[in-house]
Design a protein that fits this description.
It contains nine helices and 13 strands. With 316 residues, it is an alpha/beta fold. Helix 3 packs parallel to helix 4 and helix 5 packs parallel to helix 7. The longest helix has 22 residues. It binds nicotinamide-adenine-dinucleotide and uridine-5'-diphosphate. The site of uridine-5'-diphosphate has 14 residues, from helix 5 and strand 8.
C-alpha cells in the first residue's frame, strides 16, 4: 500500500483519480481549496478509512509524508482560469514550487498534470513532445499556458538540480462525468445546452478542432506514467488522437441526446487554438498506453451522467 497525495483531488479529474487509487488499494489524501472542485465529487469516498481530505491552497507550503504526489491543483476551464489570472499563475508556479519542495524533502515521486496548452495555437500538427509551442505570453490564455510552462521548467530543474523523481504528462482535452455543468468547457456546455433544449453555442465558425479523451483513458495513462522507472520523466502526451471539429461535436451531441436545440454561432475567444491533436508515439512506446474509449461511447456515458444530474434538480 502506498500513501498518495492528490492536489486538486476534489476536481473533475482529481476525484476520479482518488477513487481509482483507492480501488487499487492505496491510501489517498485529497488536498483542495475548492475553487473549482466540489465536495460532492468525493463525498462517496468519505466512508473509506484509507481516504483523507484536506482543505489547503497549494500556493501555501504544506507538509505531509507520502510516497507519491499527483499535482493537479489548477483551474482548467478557460472561464475559471481567466477569472483571476494572477491567482492562476500563482497556483501553477507557487503550487509547483511548494509540491516540488515537499517531494524533495520527503523523497517522493511527483507527477505534474501539464497540458496541451503548452503548445499554444500550434504550428506543428499533430503535436509531438519536442515541439516548443506557439504561445502568446500576454494573451487571455497566457496565465494558464505560461503558468503550466513554468511549472514544467521547475519540474525539470528540480530533477536535474536536486534529483527529484519527476513525471510530466501533457493532457489533451479530457471529458466525462463530474465535469462541472457550468464550467464552460465545450463538452459539458454542449451536453447541458442540448439536455435543456437551449441553443448550442459554437464559437467562431466551429471549424477549429480538438481531440477529446475520456477520463478513464487519462487515468490509465497517468498511473502508467507514475509507475515508469526513474529515468523516464516525460513530458509525454496523454490524449486521444481522434480529431473533430467543434461543429462535428455539436452535431454528435444533438444526435445522441435527440435534442431540438439549434446551433448558434458566437464570437471566437481570443487566442483560441485552431487545431489540436496529440502524437502519442512516445506514450505507446514508453508506457504501452493508448486510449481505448471512442468519442461516441464516452459522450453517451457523459450524457447519461448529466441527464441524471439535471434531473436531480439541484442548484449548481
Ligand atoms: P478542475 O477545475 O475540475 O480541477 C482542478 C482542481 O484544483 C479543483 O478541485 C480546484 O478546486 C483545485 N484547485 C484550484 N486551485 C487550487 C489551489 N490554489 N489550491 C488547491 N487546489 C486548487 O479541472 P480538471 O479538469 O480536473 O483538471 C485537473 C488538472 O489537469 C489541472 O491541473 C489541469 O490543468 C489539468 N488538465 C486538465 C485537462 C482537461 O481537459 N480536463 C486538460 C489538460 C490539463
Ligand atoms: N467552444 C465552443 N462553445 C462553447 C465552449 C467552447 O465553441 O460553448 C469552443 C472553444 O472556443 C474551443 C473549443 O470549443 O475552440 C474547446 O473549448 P474548451 O474551453 O473546452 O477547451 P480549450 O479551448 O481549452 O481546448
Amino acid at each position: 500500500m502506498k500513501r498518495i497525495l492528490v492536489t486538486g483531488g476534489a476536481g473533475f479529474v482529481g476525484s476520479h483519480l482518488c477513487e481509482r487509487l483507492l480501488n487499487e488499494g492505496n491510501e489517498v489524501i485529497s488536498l483542495d481549496n475548492y475553487f473549482t472542485g466540489q465536495k460532492r465529487n468525493i463525498e462517496h469516498l468519505m466512508d473509506n478509512h484509507y481516504f483523507e481530505v484536506i482543505r489547503h491552497d497549494v500556493t501555501m507550503p504544506f507538509f505531509i509524508e507520502v510516497d507519491e504526489i499527483y499535482n493537479l491543483a489548477c483551474p482548467a476551464s478557460p472561464i475559471h482560469y481567466q477569472y483571476n489570472p494572477i491567482k492562476t499563475v500563482k497556483t501553477s508556479v507557487m503550487g509547483a514550487i511548494n509540491m516540488l519542495g515537499l517531494a524533495k524533502r520527503i523523497k517522493a515521486k511527483i507527477l505534474q498534470a501539464s497540458t496541451s496548452e503548452v503548445y499554444g495555437d500550434p504550428k506543428v500538427h499533430p503535436q509531438t513532445e519536442d515541439y516548443w509551442g506557439h504561445v502568446n505570453p500576454i494573451g487571455t490564455r497566457s496565465c494558464y499556458d505560461e503558468g503550466k510552462r513554468v511549472a514544467e521548467t521547475l519540474f525539470t530543474n528540480y530533477h536535474t538540480q536536486n534529483n527529484v523523481r519527476i513525471k510530466i504528462i501533457r493532457i489533451f482535452n479530457t471529458y466525462g462525468p463530474r465535469m462541472h455543468p457550468n464550467d464552460g468547457r465545450v463538452v459539458s456546455n454542449f451536453i447541458v445546452q442540448a439536455l435543456k433544449g437551449e441553443n448550442i453555442t459554437v464559437y467562431g465558425e466551429g471549424n477549429q478542432t480538438r481531440s477529446f479523451q475520456y477520463v478513464d483513458d487519462l487515468l490509465n495513462g497517468m498511473i502508467k506514467t507514475m509507475t515508469t522507472g526513474d529515468d523516464f520523466t516525460g513530458p509525454v502526451n496523454i490524449g486521444n488522437p481522434g480529431e473533430f471539429t467543434i461543429l462535428e461535436l455539436a452535431q454528435k451531441v444533438i444526435d445522441f441526446t435527440g435534442s431540438k436545440s439549434k446551433i448558434v454561432f458566437e464570437d471566437l475567444p481570443s487566442d483560441d487554438p485552431m487545431q489540436r491533436k496529440p502524437d502519442i508515439t512516445l506514450a505507446k512506446s514508453k508506457l504501452n498506453w493508448e486510449p481505448v474509449i471512442k468519442l461516441d461511447t464516452g459522450l453517451m456515458k457523459t450524457i447519461e451522467y448529466f441527464d441524471k444530474l439535471l434531473g436531480e434538480d439541484k442548484q449548481y
